[in-house]
Amino acid sequence: MTLTIDKAETLLREHGYKITPQRTLLLQIMAGQAAYLDAEEIFQLAHLQDASVSLATVYRTLNLFAELGIVDHRYVSPEHRREVFRLSAGPEQHYLTCVRCGKRVLIHTDLLNRMAHELVRHKGVMVTGACACFTGYCAECTETLRRTGKL
Amino acid sequence: MTLTIDKAETLLREHGYKITPQRTLLLQIMAGQAAYLDAEEIFQLAHLQDASVSLATVYRTLNLFAELGIVDHRYVSPEHRREVFRLSAGPEQHYLTCVRCGKRVLIHTDLLNRMAHELVRHKGVMVTGACACFTGYCAECTETLRRTGKL
DNA sequence: CTACGTGCAAATCATTTGCACGTAA
DNA sequence: TTACGTGCAAATGATTTGCACGTAG
Given pLDDT bands bounded at 50, 70 and 90, which one contains residue A129? Predict the structure, then answer.
């Protein structure tokens, strides 16, 4: 289950950070969103509530949250242009970007967790975070290609 | 097995691209390297052979090679700062970056392939490329933490 | 009160691009 | 010959940072 706002604010206090309106606002925004959002998207949402919030603060706050484990941060698209964030410990999400239609397909699976476990067993390492991005064809495009004999 | 220089040059010709000294040089450099290298590293190696090669050409050439399938390109570190390249179809390689000592551990495994196959079966999609980066503790740091009771 | 947080604008860093010149075919 | 490739320097785009002001505790 996902982190609560209270839990997150406690974490901030425990580490000697202040609770500011900006930090609370970002927590509220993240709590209302299951999906990964990039800094710009989060900035836009924040801007709706409080036009004075700056993009720099959004970046600083997200980085702080990531350090404290309040948010997960990853790259989900193959271009790896923008980093994305969400409250920690939601269900695993990966994306496949379709090279034919450009669609981004959400993939729910615990495959990456299983992969991490295998690494632990075989290599003696400890995996604390992982990120995977897939490129390929979405189900519809795969079907179309198959039907038209292009596959 | 890895692409040969001849095969790569044939691909270039087939697509109407010219064989230039710069393109040949980059192919030679990539052929002598099993590991993923970033554009800057490739540029440095190229510079040793021919001081006139520019970084812009390295980028343009690597992007062209990627388009033609001559090279694989991915991000291997969790910071996703720089893209890395190698000749296509070498054995799968992933990296785990140790958050304690900073070491980058090479991981040989076909787990990502298996993951891709499961996705194909369960979702009807087609996976043509994948990228995974792991964060965690390397074997030594895991051992140390375990010994000192910090884990 | 004062150390920490913020907004703003400028800096950074990987990568891309416009342009005039060079060269493979 | 001539369209394509290159080097150079400037542009881009995401993210970070220096600084002076503002505010949580």
Answer: confident
**Mode of pairing for the β-strands spanning B126-137 and B94-98:** parallel
Which CATH number goes with the domain that contains B21? 1.10.10.10
A100 pLDDT more than 90: no
Range of the domain at B108: 91-151
Task: Give the nucleotide with minimal C1' distance to the Cα of A82.
Answer: D14
Tens digit of pLDDT for each residue in A38-80? 999 999 999 999 999 999 999 999 999 999 999 989 888 777 8
B71 shares a domain with B29: yes
The residue that minimises its CA distance to C1' of D8 is: B54
Same domain, B50 and B104: no
Please say whether the beta carbons of A101 and A84 come within 8 A. Answer: no
Predicted pLDDT of residue A90: 63
Tens-place pLDDT, residues A104-117? 888 776 667 777 77
Asked which of B36, B67, B89 is the last residue of a domain, the reply is B89
User: Is residue A82 within 8 Å of A88, Cβ to Cβ?
Assistant: no
Last residue of a domain, one of A89, A122, A143: A89
β pairing state of B84-87 and B104-107: unpaired
The confidence band for A31, taking pLDDT boundaries of 50, 70 and 90, is very high
pLDDT reading at A128 higher than 70: yes
Q: State whether A151 and B126 contact (CB < 8 Å).
A: yes
CA of B109 to C1' of C11 (A): 41
From the list A72, A66, A61, A81, the residue with the least C-alpha distance to A33 is: A72
**CA nearest to A29, candidates A49, A11, A10:** A49
Q: Which residues of B touch A118 (CB under 8 A)?
A: 109, 111
- Total tally of structural domains belonging to chain A: 2
**CB-CB: which of B123, B130, B137 is closest to A126?**
B137
Q: Which of B118, B133, B137 sits opposite A131 (nearest CB)?
A: B133
Interface test with B, best of A123, A134, A140, A141 (most B CBs within 10 A): A134
**Chain B residues close to A122, C-beta within 8 Å:** 109
**CB spacing of A112 vs B116 below 8 angstroms:** no
CATH number of the domain where residue B151 is located: 3.30.1490.190
